[in-house]
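Researcher: Let's try something more involved. This one mixes different molecule types, so please make sure each is placed in the same coordinate frame as the others.
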Amino acid sequence: MRPHEDAPRRIALAGNPNVGKSTVFNALTGLHQHTGNWPGKTVATAQGRVHFRGQSYTLVDLPGTYSLLASSPEEEVARDSLCFDRPDAAIVVTDATALERNLNLVLQVLEILPNTVVCVNLLDEARKKRVQIDLAALSRALGVPVVGCAARSGKGLPELMEAVEGICAQECTPASVPYPPRLEEALAALAPRVSGCGLPGRWTALRLLEGEGALYEQLLHRVGAGEEAALVAQIAALRQGLGGEALRDTVVRAVNERAAALVGLCVRWEESAAERRERRLDKLLASKSVGIPLMLLGLGVVLWITLQGANVPSQWLSAALGRLETWLSAGAARVGMAPWLQGLLIQGMYRTLAWVVSVMLPPMAIFFPLFTLLEDAGLLPRVAFNMDYLFRRCGAHGKQALTCCMGLGCNACGVMGCRIIDSPRERLIAIVTNNFIPCNGRFPTLIALILVFFAAGSSPLAALLLLGVLGLGLGAALLSAKLLSVTVLKGQPSSFALELPPYRRPQVGRVIVRSVLDRTLFVLGRAAAVAAPAGLVIWLLANVSVGGMTLLARCTGALEGLGQLMGLDGTILTAFILGFPANEIVLPIALMAYAVQGSMSSYASLAELGQILTQNGWTWLTALCAMIFSVMHFPCGTTCWTIWKETKSVGWTALAVALPTAAGMACCMAVAALARLLGAG
Amino acid sequence: MEKTALNRLKPGMRGQIDALTAQGLLRRRLMDLGLMPGATVEMLQAAPFGDPTAYRVRGAVIALRAADAARITVILPA
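Model: All components are placed in one shared frame. Result:
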């Protein structure tokens, strides 16, 4: 260690959502932390280490926020981190193309932490939009260093660290936001009294005058030091004539006016070709006539790429894992493993795991990067914009459109993505109804049944029917949302104020790394944790006999009546139940049960699949009901686990299981009864 | 000086925010996004089903539902 190397300095990284804060964080720390304000966002803070000129710094990535005044969880985390962890300095990342709004946060951070560097990011885009910013003038007006950046191309980052180094060595005295005279008088009276607790007196005085919940209590306790009663009396006296809600407005307005004044001083803007292009693109993507069809087309393309692209690696993985199974069996035989144990571990556990991996991994590894690309390009907020109306009518939140889209990839991811919805009521609705959207894992079953029974190998017709099935899922999700919002989750739709960020060229390389690491591997890990033990159970059921019949046969027998009522049979219903670890294995289990085999098997061709199913009494009605039940049944194990993790409630998890199952059973029974009544099927 | 609710603006129309009648969390959220008295707003376009609507405020594009936009009064330019 070099002699002059001190303990790492703590630097907080703040910024509005969508300003490239993660890019700055990743570029400086070399980590791949993803903290977008879309799916996967964290309310916790991430940390990374930076070394610069022999000094190490701990960079603390705060959640993206517009302000530190309101009371969303992210804003609280960001504010508390700045005020109670007392970092040595802060960097506020701002968007050069929307500097005025970004300056609000800068001014608020400066009030808490004077040692702040302002990073004006996205200068490259600002140039394209013909926004000119006089950084030197801004720095003079603010009284702190201002550094221009284009973080995606790494421009300006060394200068940023240089400014951070400089600011750690000096005390900054930024210009304060001027408040109206009455408030200034109150602040002047209170600030000296409350300074000296390590927090800036002016900021502390302001917050005390506002008298806001938990923070107020904390500050009071901190600065009161035994004389809290006297302090409370003084605050109450000063508050006279300032008003409660009105005071907060006064503060927000003063900060904004200051931001506007700064922009007037330092920014020159003219409408550019790039911006006109953006508006034209918005006009097209959200137009009455083509907006929705374009979205559906985009969705179709993403699904098509996913399914087509996944075929080859899926087969390859399946073959490789199959070879591994042969070796494992041979090895097990060589060491003299008992046949039943071999069956349990290899044909039971290993084979189920291998199946889940080979069927799940490729589509997820394709779908999620595609999804993240759309997210990066700024297209997803437009989807929420277009779909909000439908969700609002059902008492749900517009952002649920996005969690539904994620559900197409994987419902567990969709459920996790519901974190982007602020209102707890609407978030629960989104979580509970996400499973109506069929995930990648259900597509193979749906597609196989469509091709065998309805589309006779015609892929355009199959694609159309698949879109119809998705429509059924979306309809069910919306109806259930409506049902929930007039019963257990009663309430008014919350407000919907969504920023439509500028379109951006996505960063392909980073997107792939990020989405594979953050989503795909994460979900795969959870799925494997569920699939392996489930494989054991399935194998036991298929191989342990009681009274001359395997447990599996007993299950299918017991469920036969209910299955028939639902237009299915006992075997299909059993397969759905045993498919709890992952929806991918439903069809293989059914085939295994039909063939009275002891382990899961694949099918060689669609024709063969059709033959096996028809021999076992399947008609178009069976297939239709199986598809309906595939869309509407209990979530898979991974998703259930995730729902519980996200809601921390057995009750909501149980509802998320019961609601789609009940809906599916009711639909299947209705369809079967109707078909039989009409003499079809 | 003609005043109207923000949700009544037609595409391309501009106005200056006069007051927010929204209260509590929504009020703060709107102000965070820059929708506060004095700010200039331009109506850009409505979503395909007519709601929500996109507005340009302080260089950013913000989507608001009609019910929320109705709680913002704007002054139309003479």
